[in-house]
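User: Design a sequence. Structure:
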């Protein structure tokens, strides 16, 4: 069965900039997976496997959020990790706290729960994954990695199908535009 997540795609130029920065950090030495620029995103909620009739109901429910949210300004806030600092399983670009983004994620979660979807209920930590799956080959020095603060505006979010054997791996199947966006 097809797996899905709900997320926010990065602007192309920003995604490429992050990949170019990542190249200078040589994360290919420490991690097995380095997403291509087209796959860089902010996950609002991982859904996993969803049957097609339930997915159609969810898409309809998510469409109702369009008028409830305006575009949201997001600011990148450095580099961080998930996992052990010496062998982090994920290296990511952190996102500054933004109440509107938190509220959007909560609204997405509530729509999913109203349909009794079995979703990932871990606390929401907005981030952009740069590398994942520690390979154990070389030490990492997080202090040598930095990203300048910069902002961009979110005007939409999408439901993505996950295709692990393809590059890019994530295909937007339905996009919800926030009110006031074009």
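Assistant: Done.
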């Amino acid at each position: 069965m097809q797996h899905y997540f709900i997320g926010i795609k990065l602007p192309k130029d920003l995604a490429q900039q992050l990949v170019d920065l990542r190249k200078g950090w040589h994360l290919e030495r420490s991690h097995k997976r380095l997403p291509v620029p087209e796959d860089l995103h902010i996950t609002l909620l991982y859904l996993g496997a969803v049957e097609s009739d339930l997915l159609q109901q969810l898409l309809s429910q998510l469409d109702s959020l369009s008028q409830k949210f305006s575009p949201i300004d997001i600011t990148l806030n450095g580099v961080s990790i998930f996992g052990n600092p010496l062998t982090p399983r994920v290296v990511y670009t952190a996102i500054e706290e933004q109440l509107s983004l938190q509220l959007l994620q909560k609204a997405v979660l509530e729509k999913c729960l109203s349909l009794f979807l079995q979703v990932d209920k871990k606390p929401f930590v907005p981030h952009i994954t740069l590398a994942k799956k520690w390979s154990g080959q070389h030490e990492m020095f997080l202090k040598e990695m930095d990203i300048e603060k910069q902002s961009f505006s979110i005007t939409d979010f999408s439901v993505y199908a996950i295709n692990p054997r393809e590059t890019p791996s994530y295909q937007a199947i339905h996009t919800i535009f926030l009110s006031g966006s074009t």
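The chain is about 25% helix and 35% strand. The two ends are 33 Å apart (CA to CA).
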